[in-house]
Amino acid sequence: MRDQLEKIKEEALNQIESSDALEKLNDIRVAYLGKKGQLTSVLKSMKDVPPEERPKVGQMVNDARALIEGKLEEARTALAKKAREEQMKKEVIDVTLPAKRNHVGHSHPNTIALEEVERIFVGMGYEVVEGPEVEYDLYNFEKLNIPKNHPARDEQDTFYINENIVLRSQTSPVQVRTMEQGKLPIRMIAPGRVFRSDEVDATHSPSFHQIEGLVIDKNITFADLKGTLAEFAKELFGPETKVKFRPHHFPFTEPSAEVDVTCFKCGGRGCRFCKGSGWIEILGCGMVHPHVLEMSGIDPEEYSGFAFGVGLERIALLKYEIDDMRLLYENDIRFLKQF
Hints:
The chain has helices at about 1-20, 20-35, 40-45, 55-90, 110-125, 135-140, 170-180, 220-235, 290-295, 310-320, 335, and strands at about 125-130, 135, 165, 185-195, 205-215, 245-250, 255-260, 280-290, 305-310. The chain is of the alpha+beta class and about 350 residues long. α1 (about 1-20) packs antiparallel against α2 (about 20-35). It is elongated.
């Protein structure tokens, strides 16, 4: 029995000494110290040992186990240290090298344009108001003086969810909801995403953004509208910018107009950017229709107001001289990093 234990011990120590991986040490531990290991087998054969020799044999087995366990731990510590040193060599950092440059994102050109428009109107005392993108037909059309048979309600232009609910085709419903609250006077802009059944091309998209404004108070006139939009144009495109109003028709305003500004590229002399006219159309506007005021619970005999609407993408296209609206949505980093 003594010779058998010495042989087991010698074999175990030799294998431990020659091991070069932690996995091998674990295999040695199982082979010699596990439930089915060689030392365990010796203990199970103690019944064949004379009773007077059993204490000595048991002590020899325990000594062998302790020695093997100690050598295993020493080898494990040494291999772990060696592996750590090799890993440290591979992960050496040269502090003299220049740091890696972090690529930080920035605002989208639409966001830049929106923030500038909001800054201008907030500076005039306007409030920024938002509303739902999924809207009732009542607010998107009827309360804006657009009856059931109006061409604008055709399903070719509007996305209908059902007979009474649509994806809003303009942000004007936000103006109606604000007027219904009855808190007068009102001075607000309503930026947001809108939806129309348009084909995607250089100037159209089924999803785009509008910024609509509304002022309701006593003694508001068309002159107030002209002064407001003239100041807005100067702030946005430069102090030399002039505005021109052309008669137009919108169901919810009367009288209505479309607004042009002098080309900020050529100063109104005529160029490729303004197609030689010297003017660029930017928005539609008008005095709020009396019937729209009545439907929102406002007395048109006492109060009047004006409204205007401009496409956010149009401002971005003009301001940054972009000739294709699709560039704003294609997420091409080569384009976006210019802003």
